[in-house]
Specification:
Layout (H helix, E strand, L loop, with lengths): L1 H30 L4 H5 L5 H13 L12 H11 L18 E4 L17 E3 L7 E3 L3 E3 L9 H14 L3 E2 L21 E4 L3 H13 L2 H13 L9 E3 L4 E5 L19 E5 L15 H7 L5 E5 L10 E2 L6 H7 L7 E2 L10 H15 L3 E5 L8 H13 L7 E5 L20 H14 L7 E5 L5 H9 L4 E4 L1 H6 L25 H4 L4 H25 L13 E4 L5 E2 L2 H15 L2
Parallel strand pairs: 4-16, 5-9, 9-10, 10-13, 13-14, 14-15, 15-16
Antiparallel strand pairs: 1-17, 2-3, 6-8, 7-8, 11-12, 17-18
Helix pairs in contact: 4-16, 5-16, 6-7, 13-16
Length: 576
């Protein structure tokens, strides 16, 4: 009897299965008219769309790395973030392609402990409040909005733990940048407390589950349906929420940057987010308040392939992001192409002078260059102002590479606009030196810098300081699925670059904060190792004479000036 019942069940199953397949076949071949391939290959043709769907998130697991120099470099980042031994056996799995720079080693090398631990960089020595960075490396600009709130908190905590600066990105200094700030003054913070019942529920949830779930439940109990609930940080010890009260008078804000906050570089873009009023105009009062928590300012004129201004798709513009940026929720936020105070270089430098006067701190610009014409006008104006004693010129210039950019950027501009970071650094260093102003302006480099050898090479070519985005993204859990923009219908699978609540709330903030700090620590540790075999006691001893160049035919060149002269002339002759 049991056998007959079982047999009947399977008969019914196969009948239903065959009917579904037949109906599916008929639909694909004779009904739908969206996909041509399904008409000729019903059902099986859908495998094409399946393979397309999994291609990007699984790309890194198959074959060699094509976008970066090698997969070995990516593996180094992930191991460094987890503080694992970073040695290779037998040989690299994917040798670096030629042409490539080589590092000169010394006949008499140093031991690692003979290399100085001093990696400080001074910005704005002429300002009333100059900034001394404790590291040569900062996390590059990533906006709170393009990055999830949880991701931003992980970066902020990692920056604070690791003792290196963090760039706010054009989204401004949001509440999430205050996650380590526990010694706050209620005069400049808006406090939201709760009743004993809600606090008891939070404690119970934390006992049975974990702190992240408890915080989420507690936030819902306190704020109910308040759309701005996510703009508040939870003080777990005091069991209350807080966020900066930007409506408080300037006098209420701290005179110096609080010691329990990381070193923040406040980035202002053409959208003026974080320093604008509700009409979108520059707000001097808000800017000065923000700068009470930041060490210096960076004016973003261009970034990677974003020559059209930053872009944030509407689905990432949550009510919290809209609050931070003074815009409308769930609508695309596309910054203008041109910075509003940069209709000329003279106007831009006057605005820089205004910010320097208001903040009393260093102010720099972020640009992408294609040739001499992109940097010489800046150098000429800086030289003129110095000679004539006119205030207002950048304390530093950040050079981003034209190799793409994080999150959303026009595909047609990626790899087509702007030099790579090494060419840019060499060219800008050369021009500033020729104009006699190199000692007045720091050079900051950004763009596909991942590993210690990248750091050594770029700094040997003339950079004083580095900002890293991709490496820190990977250290924070990024698997390079390329769903960052939110415009593909898919979301970042790890919850780092998405505003999807289901995904981002499962992101391990504290674990990844430590990974971020580890990545920075191991970068500096292994930079010291390279300096040791180069026979150099200090990072400031690097220059282009410490490099060799291996061309595509394996010929070695030791005159770096000649290498770049031929390289840049060749690019000019080809019209690239």
């Amino acid at each position: 009897m049991e056998f007959i019942e079982s047999f009947t069940f399977w008969e019914e199953f196969w009948v239903v299965f065959i009917l579904v397949i037949v109906a599916w076949y008929i639909h694909d071949k004779y009904v739908q008219r969206d996909h041509q391939i399904l008409v000729n290959y019903p059902i099986i043709g859908r495998l094409r769309y399946l393979f397309e769907e999994i291609r990007e998130p699984f790309r890194q697991y198959f074959g060699d790395e094509k976008f970066y120099e090698s997969k070995d470099k990516l593996d180094w980042v992930y191991k460094a973030a987890r503080d694992k031994p970073n040695y290779a056996s037998f040989s690299p799995s994917q040798p670096l392609p030629k042409p490539k720079f080589m590092i000169r080693h010394a006949n008499i090398v140093l031991n690692d402990n003979e290399v100085e631990n001093n990696f400080e960089v001074l910005f704005g020595e002429r300002r009333k409040k100059p900034f001394i960075s404790k590291s040569i490396i900062a996390r590059s600009a990533m906006s709170d909005g393009s990055i999830s709130p949880e991701g931003t908190r992980a970066f902020v905590q990692g920056s604070f733990i690791g003792g290196f600066p963090i760039n706010s990105g054009e989204g401004g200094v949001t509440s999430n940048f205050f996650v380590t700030h526990e010694k706050y003054d209620e005069s400049y913070m808006k406090i939201v407390d709760s009743n004993n019942f809600n606090k008891a529920v939070k404690r119970a949830v934390k006992f049975f589950f974990n702190g992240a779930v408890a915080a989420d439940v507690y936030r819902k109990l306190v704020f109910r349906k308040d759309l701005e609930a996510e703009t508040y940080i939870l003080d777990m010890e005091k069991e209350r929420f807080y966020r900066p009260n930007w409506d408080a008078p300037l006098e209420a804000f701290p005179k110096e940057v609080p010691s329990d906050m990381p070193d923040i570089v406040f980035q202002i873009s053409s959208g003026l987010y974080g320093a604008r009023d509700k009409d979108g105009k520059f707000d001097p009062d808000r800017y000065q308040k923000v700068m009470r928590f930041c060490q210096m300012t960076e004016i973003k004129l261009a970034q990677g392939a974003k020559q059209t201004g930053g872009k944030l798709s509407g689905q990432k513009v949550t009510p919290a992001v809209a609050y931070y940026r003074n815009v409308e929720a769930y609508k695309d936020v596309f910054s203008p192409n041109r910075f509003p105070f940069a209709n000329s270089i003279e106007e831009l430098f006057d605005f820089i002078g205004t910010l320097q006067e208001m903040s009393e701190k260093p102010v720099g610009i972020k640009i992408v260059i294609s040739d001499l014409q992109n940097i010489e006008p800046y150098a000429k104006e800086i030289k003129r102002r110095i000679d004539e004693g006119i205030n207002g010129y950048p304390d530093y210039i950040t050079l981003d590479a034209g190799s793409g950019g994080s999150a959303t950027a026009p595909l047609e501009m990626m790899e087509r606009v702007g030099l790579n970071v090494r060419d840019s650094v060499y060219l800008v260093n050369k021009v500033l030196t020729e104009y006699g102003i190199r000692d007045k302006v720091r050079i900051v480099a950004s763009g596909k810098i991942l590993t210690p050898d990248d750091v050594i090479i770029v700094m040997s070519l003339g950079a004083d300081f580095l900002q890293i985005a991709r490496g820190f993204m990977m250290s924070a859990g990024c698997i390079r699925a390329r769903y960052c923009s939110g415009t593909t219908g898919r979301q970042c699978p790890v919850g780092l670059a998405t505003q999807d609540k289901k995904k981002r709330r499962k992101y391990f903030v504290f674990r990844h904060a430590n990974y971020v700090a580890n990545y920075h620590k191991n970068l500096l540790k292994n930079v010291k190792g390279l300096l040791a075999i180069m026979g150099l006691k200090n990072i400031k001893m690097l220059d282009q004479n410490k490099l060799l160049f291996l061309d595509k035919d394996s010929r070695v060149h030791d005159d770096i000036d000649e290498v770049f002269r031929r390289k840049l002339d060749l690019a000019k002759n080809k019209g690239e």
